[in-house]
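In this section we walk through a basic example: taking a raw amino acid sequence and producing a predicted 3D structure, encoded as discrete structure tokens. The instruction is simple. Fold the sequence below.
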Amino acid sequence: MTALEPILAMLLGAGLTAGATWLAKFLNNQKALKYGEILSKAYDIIDPLLEKNLKSWKGSDVEYAMELAVASVADNELTADELKDVVKEAAERWLPAKAVDKVRGYLSLEEQPAEIKAADALAKAVSGEISTDQAITAAKGELKNVK
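The resulting token sequence is shown next.
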């Protein structure tokens, strides 16, 4: 039996690791499903916002910009903790290459879309030109007719 114990311990450890990994992925996917619509709308603003300003902002500015974008599309549906969770999820799932494609699509339009205007308002808050409340109000005003 002593020869089997190390093998059993190794198999048990591998099984626990696989189970923990699966559980973590499952919980992350549950978050994405729960906040999917908010994340989708937020990315419509986050993509042009970061595409335009990422090089000149530091990490805290990027996080603040993402928080503003999520808050502007959430319509007070999220608690402070949920807002933090959604911002974290948005940051982890943001894909720069996809953002570039989306922004190119926006720029090819004749009229500047509301998402770009909302992103510009939020960028002013990050740079300190206007307050957070003013930026969120302006972004919500731009996005009110977007479906």
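Looking at the output, two observations stand out. Residues 35-143 form one domain. The chain has two domains: 1-31, 35-143. In the next section we compare this with other chains.
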